[in-house]
Write a structure and sequence with these properties.
There is one protein chain. The protein has 487 residues and is mainly alpha-helical. It has two domains: 3-225 and 455-486, Serine Threonine Protein Phosphatase 5, Tetratricopeptide repeat; 275-454, Alpha Horseshoe (Serine Threonine Protein Phosphatase 5, Tetratricopeptide repeat), CATH 1.25.40. It is 41% helix and 6% strand. It contains 17 helices and nine strands. A three-stranded mixed sheet has the order 6-7-8, with no helix packed on it. Helix 10 (234-248) runs antiparallel to helix 11 (251-262), helix 13 packs antiparallel against helix 14 (407-417) and helix 13 packs antiparallel against helix 15 (428-438). Belongs to the SusD family.
Amino acid sequence: MKTKLYTSLGLSLVLSLSLSIVSCDSKLDIEPRASIESNRVFTNSSNLRAALFGAYSEVKGTFNGPQNGELYGGDFNIISELISADSNVHWGGTFGEYRQFENKRVITVNSRVTANWVRAYTAINVLNNVLANLTVADTPEDRAQIEGEAKCLRGMLYFELVRLWSKTWGLGTEATDPGVPLVLTPVNTVAEADALKTIGRSTVAAVYAQVINDLEQAQTLLTPFDKNGTNISAYAAAAMLSRVYLQQGNYPKAAEKADFVISSELFELSGEPLDAFNNTANSKEDIFAIQQSTLSNAGTSNGGVSTFYASLNGTGRGDMQVQEPHFHIYEPGDLRGFIQDDLNDAATITNVEDMFYIGVFSQNSGHIQTAKWGDANVNIQVIRLAEMYLTRAEANFEAGTAVGDAPVNDINVIRERAGLDPLAVVTRDEIRLERQRELAFEGFRLHDFRRWKFDINGLPFSSPSLILPIPEREREVYDIAQNEAYN
């Protein structure tokens, strides 16, 4: 088995202590060459925060070719949008790994699949190390905040893993369907790594239960710390819980968590839809965003989403090409459906005034691009307030409740920001369409279509071809059952 050096506690911690963690290529296969002496690595709150910073960096990702996982910096978005692509978006790039997602013909050695699995489990191991050493925190307040952030991030990662690599929730077979391996303790010794070789896959139900447990604890632990600046807050934990509960069809809980965020009045919608994106600092709409222009949470720039979505001077390849049928979902006058066609080769995102534009200055210039991801040096929105209004509206509608407000009022908040007239009444179809308009190309499409039981490009929502394969090199080391479409 090949091994390579890997520093998984974050560069600042490694440099300060002259200690690196070494592990195997496959990050479930995290067998180190030497054990880690935790009592030397973790001695105070500063050490714990440094390691947590490393986890934020892993969650962000950095694109350096198909071998590196992107997670929230790119592939959690792009893979979802491409697997659910029909006539709304087309992969026009040269990376064949991404074309496989659009074609629903992914192979078990797809480098993007492997890279994202590796990076996710790398980040989880960092978080498990932090959680195992909380006793060294300097104060109870430090401990609560660090534990809350770590548990929120771990819950988020397991949620994305189970959604992409497992059957969807809602089939009635969650208690037996294979989910993903649940690794909840740090792996820093040979013996700990060996123990994982028979870990197998926890059920979908068990993974969801762990996700909810982590996120609920995170919300409780972080509630005293207000918005918590640019890092994870209680509101980010609650917002992520609203996603989880919505995916499960637990509408009362989804409405409750979304309302917790909205009713805090700590966030507000940006002036126009495009104002929520391409910001160098958190906008008033951001509940959690990956920081790229500062050293908070994720660090410096990342070209993941902008590399593939943008087609501008100095930014992007224009590979994610929006197709004309996508615009059929917009009403006349909807600010989210306008296309700018007057850019020249010198144009950057600062010259883009509409939500879509005709790309320039790239190998794929001349195609329609979304303007949501236009610069590698601006923040990447992970959770924003508009989603909470849409979630509360849908959850209340399906539950027949009015937690916080009536569904029609929440939908009208979003519509009126987009320049549309308010509705007198709202239907299930209108709520779902509004979600597609507002959250287009933000990584929601696959997961929404599967929970709505919509066909995807002729495939039923439950098709095994809409699920990623377990990476082949993981299965060479571990007893992990492969997904149905890949046996």
